[in-house]
Amino acid sequence: MENAVLTEEDAAALPPPLVTVPVQRHVRDEVAPWTDDQVVAEVPVALVFNGISHVVLMCTPQDLPELALGFALSEGIIERPADCYGIEVASVDACGDAPQGPQAMLEQVEVPAVEVRLEIASSAFMRLKERRRSLAGRTGCGVCGIDSLQALDLVPEPRTPPPWLAQITPQTIFKALAAMPAWQVLNRATGAVHAAAYAGIDGELVAVYEDVGRHNALDKLLGARVMAGDVGQGGQPWPQRGFVVMSSRASYELVRKCARLSVPLLATISAPTSLAIQVAETAGLQLWGLAREPRALRYTR
């Protein structure tokens, strides 16, 4: 897969992940002077497959090649990494083609946005075009790229849990979750960012990816796992035996994404939904929630 890593020049042209804004702190009856603070950037990111824009995600503008590849795989647009031939990233103006209103100020509005352009196999592109064609003239159910209840993929292919999964205990999960904050650079600066992390069976973290959206953070992590091959963020090898922990609740989409990429265990800080539990049970995925030491709840056998 070519052009999957941003050059320094390309990265510099993208919107920054952190934005400085003025704030005024109010504590009890005391009011502090206005001062600068940092907030996390939320930017429209269009994923463009073979020249056709498929979806716009609102996310944090970093690790975008990983996000795009993870999304393409976890949403079933491509079946294998080899189906993606290349990824290019370009900064654009979201309002550049917007119709001009009567107010002169509208002409001065610039909204930074990004296009991530993927070149995919013709067979995958044909399936994507058929999916898009079926969306025309229909009322969607509200899930990205889905046109019917039958397309929700609520009955994933069941997988047999690997034998080594029994080595992962609540203490292993607590260890991984406890290590996450030190890796969460954006959240430490803003307090507004989700994280998805990958840990080995010893609970040691290999990689953590952040985004304003929990689905985006997971797609970045899954994409990085595929893209990086054997080496994680800290130079450590990606273990073949490992699991995912997240700083969010467990929704059905997160479970489905993990199941599609053969992640055998997902643990989240907050609780899962009923549908997440049902899909995890069907997929043979071990699901943990409310994992806050000393307590953790296991929802699937």
TrEMBL record:
InterPro entries hit by this protein: Cytidine_deaminase-like, FdhD
GO cellular component terms listed in the entry, alphabetical order: cytoplasm
Family from the record: Belongs to the FdhD family.
Intracellular or extracellular location(s): Cytoplasm
Entry superkingdom: Bacteria
List of catalytic residues: 141 (cysteine persulfide intermediate)
Main location as per UniProt: cytoplasm
Designated gene of the protein: fdhD
Provenance organism: Corticibacter populi
PANTHER family the UniProt entry points to: FORMATE DEHYDROGENASE (PTHR30592), SULFUR CARRIER PROTEIN FDHD (PTHR30592:SF1)
Function: Required for formate dehydrogenase (FDH) activity. Acts as a sulfur carrier protein that transfers sulfur from IscS to the molybdenum cofactor prior to its insertion into FDH.
One Pfam family linked to the record: FdhD-NarQ
Keyword terms, alphabetized: Cytoplasm, Molybdenum cofactor biosynthesis, Transferase
Gene3D superfamilies: 3.10.20.10, Cytidine Deaminase, domain 2
Biological process according to GO: Mo-molybdopterin cofactor biosynthetic process
Gene Ontology MF term list: sulfur carrier activity; sulfurtransferase activity
Key word Transferase present: yes
Protein name: Sulfur carrier protein FdhD
